[in-house]
Amino acid sequence: MTNKNNQSQPAQLSLADGSHDSLQATLTGDWLLGNGLPDADQVTARFAGASRLQRLEYATPGLGHWDSGLMTFLVNIQRNADDAGIAVDSSGLPEGAQKLLHLAFAVKEREGARRVFKRESFFEQVGKATDEMWQQSLALVSFLGELMQSFARLLKGKANFQRSDLLVVLQEAGAEALPIVSLISFLIGMIFAFVGVIQLQALGAGIYTADLVAVAMVREMSAIMTGIIMAGRTGASYAAQLGTMKVNEEIDALTTMGIDPIDFLVLPRVIALIIMMPFLTMYGSLMGILGGMLVGVSMLDVNVIQYVEQTKAAVGLHDLFGGLFKAVVYGTLVATAGTQQGIACGNSAMAVGQATTKAVVMGIVLIVVSASILTVIYINIGI
Predict the structure, then answer these.
(1) Which of 5, 229, 255, 347 registers the highest number of CB atoms within 10 A of its CB?
(2) Looking at the domain covering 12-104, what would its CATH class be?
(3) Which residues of the chain register pLDDT less than 50?
(4) Rounded to two decimals, what is the model's pTM?
């Protein structure tokens, strides 16, 4: 392959019928990528149209400079000629091009190696999605079984994990999450209060905005919003950490040393989120009530003491403990989704990103589904 000069000649291709059912392709000019090369279809079209054609010959008396553009042209023709059963005589090509062409076809292409893009029908896509969802459900149930066995070993004092790791993940899932929980909960409380003031003040019941904000935050919104925050923050972190360890074969190393990865890696993270979620939920409820108080006091003809008294009268212990139980459930689901996707991660960098995304999506879906189920249960038992 030679270098392009400043006065390159245009690449040209001419075809002529030769003797003994052969086709001669004459190449002239500079066959460089920037020159606008002739299309190989000009040659391959003759393969389909000439049933008696048996041989292709090259002639390059006026061939100038050339680069990979020429080789791409020759390789395309060679592949089509092989498919059509036509012999190719490359002796007329430059020596360097002959060697590269021979090297390109020295090893036969493995069957099925070339990527084939197939357009799937709607029903095929639905079937594959359903099958994938079923397989993921089975994997999650299997993981839950292993996690329950790990908790049983913990109760027996046989779970093998470092207590220092538990303290680290407690801090990550607790204190380090306070800023984002504070911001979101405070704004959610303000939004509820603003909506309540606009709607209730028209009925002369603006003071009940305090009831709306307090009950909504303590019973439902604080737990569910904290759960969604932790799914996007901590659940994704769990999946990324364990997925990276899977890629680096650290989990395989633990198994080789006789250490159960569920005990050593998963159990501390699940325990940490179960412990910290109720505390974060109570803190989120407080921040939401403060946000509602800011809006209520500024937009209603009430003072802070009146707002606080109305809030205390609206919220009971059953509201508080109902919300805290939901927080425990959500924390368990988020931690389970994050660790399960991390353990099930593939062995590539792309797989880590996919596992992180799946962990967040699965965590949020599980939170919404469980919130619906728990709400129905609470209504039926009168909580």
Answers:
(1) 229
(2) alpha beta
(3) 1-5
(4) 0.70
Query: What HEC string does 115-133 produce?
Result: CCCCCCCHHHHHHHHHHHH
- The token pair at 364 is 């949020």
Buried b (16+ CB within 10 A) or exposed e, 267-285: bbbbbbbbbbbbbbbbbbb
- Looking at residue 44, its amino acid is T
Cα 288 from Cα 191, distance rounded (Å): 9
Q: Give the orientation angle of helix 236-247 with respect to helix 349-381, to 10 degrees.
A: 140
CA distance 151 to 267: 7
Q: What is the pLDDT of residue 238?
A: 93
Q: Supply the pLDDT for residue 4.
A: 44
Q: What residue ranges do the domains of the chain occupy?
A: 12-104, 162-381
The three-state secondary structure class of 28 is strand
List Cβ<8 Å contacts ≥24 apart for 344-348: 344/139, 344/143, 345/239, 345/242, 345/243, 345/246, 345/247, 346/246, 346/247, 347/246, 347/247, 348/247
